[in-house]
UniProtKB/TrEMBL annotation:
<protein>
    <submittedName>
        <fullName>Ankyrin repeat domain-containing protein</fullName>
    </submittedName>
</protein>
<keyword id="KW-0677">Repeat</keyword>
<dbReference type="InterPro" id="IPR036770">
    <property type="entry name" value="Ankyrin_rpt-contain_sf"/>
</dbReference>
<dbReference type="GO" id="GO:0004842">
    <property type="term" value="F:ubiquitin-protein transferase activity"/>
</dbReference>
<dbReference type="InterPro" id="IPR002110">
    <property type="entry name" value="Ankyrin_rpt"/>
</dbReference>
<keyword id="KW-0040">ANK repeat</keyword>
<dbReference type="GO" id="GO:0085020">
    <property type="term" value="P:protein K6-linked ubiquitination"/>
</dbReference>
<dbReference type="Pfam" id="PF12796">
    <property type="entry name" value="Ank_2"/>
</dbReference>
<feature type="repeat" description="ANK">
    <location>
        <begin position="106"/>
        <end position="138"/>
    </location>
</feature>
Length: 249
C-alpha cells in the first residue's frame, strides 16, 4: 500500500514538473524518424511533450529524442537528454567533464541541453557543481539563459536570470537582429513572454524588426500560429511590421 502511494506521488510530481510552458503547436509536425530505435520510455517527458519542445519542423537542430547521442560522451548526453538525474550524479561522481561538448549537436553542453529541454533539477544540480552558465554552442547560444528562453521553462528562466541579471538585456539586439524577448515570442514560449514582461527592468521594445529575418515579435508569432502570444502582444500595442497594423492580418 505504501509503495503504491509513493509511486502515485512520484507520477504526480513528474507530471507537474513536465508540464509544458509554451504555446501548443497548431499544425501537426512531421513525424519523427524512429529508425534509430530510440527507447522513448527512457525519457522523463512524454513523446507529445518533447514534440512541443523540438521537432523536424521546429528546432530541428535541437531535437534530442530522435536518435542516440554520439561521440566519446554519448552516455553523458543521453542521460542529460533523457532527464536521468541519478545517472548524471553517478557520472559526475566518477569524474565526468561538465563542459564536454555534444559535437554532433552543435557543441551544446549538458547545462545547455538541460536548460533548453526543461529539467530544472538537472540545471540547478549542474550549476551547483560548477557548470559554466556562459557556455556557448556553434549556433546562437551565448549562455544558458538563451537556451532556457528558447525552451520556455519559466522555472529555469527565472533561476538563470537571477544569476545573469546584471548582464541580461531583453531588448539587446543579437547577431540576427532579434532580441531575447523576440526569441521567446516567435518560438511560442508563452509563459516566458509573460515572465519577461513582468521582470524586465526596462519596458520591452515590442516593435524591433529583424531585417535579416524580416520579422518582428508579432509577425513571427502570427506566422507560426502562436495566437495566444500574438493576442498578448496586440494587447500591449505591438505592430505587425508587414501590415502596419496591430493585428495578424
Amino acid at each position: 500500500m505504501i509503495k503504491r502511494i509513493l509511486l502515485t506521488a512520484t507520477i504526480v510530481f513528474l507530471t507537474i514538473q513536465c508540464q509544458t510552458t509554451h504555446s501548443t503547436i497548431t499544425q501537426k509536425p512531421t513525424e519523427v524518424n524512429t529508425e534509430n530505435k530510440v527507447d522513448l520510455s527512457n525519457f522523463r517527458f512524454s513523446y507529445d511533450q518533447m514534440v512541443q519542445i523540438a521537432n523536424p519542423d521546429f528546432f530541428k537542430h535541437r531535437m534530442f529524442y530522435d536518435k542516440p547521442s554520439e561521440g566519446p560522451d554519448a552516455a553523458w548526453f543521453d542521460a542529460v537528454k533523457q532527464g536521468n538525474l541519478a545517472e548524471i550524479k553517478r557520472m559526475v561522481k566518477n569524474g565526468q567533464n561538465l563542459e564536454a561538448k555534444d559535437e554532433a549537436s552543435l557543441g551544446q553542453t549538458a547545462l545547455g541541453w538541460a536548460a533548453f529541454i526543461g529539467y530544472p533539477d538537472i540545471v540547478k544540480y549542474l550549476v551547483k557543481q560548477g557548470a559554466d552558465i556562459r557556455a556557448t554552442d556553434r549556433a546562437d547560444v551565448y549562455n544558458a539563459l538563451k537556451s532556457a528562453t528558447m525552451g520556455g521553462n519559466v522555472e529555469i528562466i527565472s533561476y538563470l536570470y537571477n544569476l545573469l541579471k546584471d548582464e541580461t538585456d531583453w531588448n539587446a539586439l543579437e547577431e540576427d537582429g532579434e532580441t531575447l524577448f523576440m526569441v521567446a515570442a516567435v518560438d511560442g514560449r508563452t509563459e516566458a513572454v509573460k515572465f519577461i514582461f513582468e521582470n524586465s527592468p526596462e519596458p520591452i521594445d515590442l516593435n524591433v524588426v529583424s531585417q535579416k529575418l524580416d520579422r518582428s515579435a508579432l509577425s513571427g508569432a502570427c506566422e507560426r500560429g502562436f495566437t495566444d502570444i500574438a493576442n498578448l502582444l496586440i494587447e500591449k500595442g505591438a505592430i505587425n511590421h508587414k501590415t502596419g497594423k496591430s493585428s495578424c492580418k
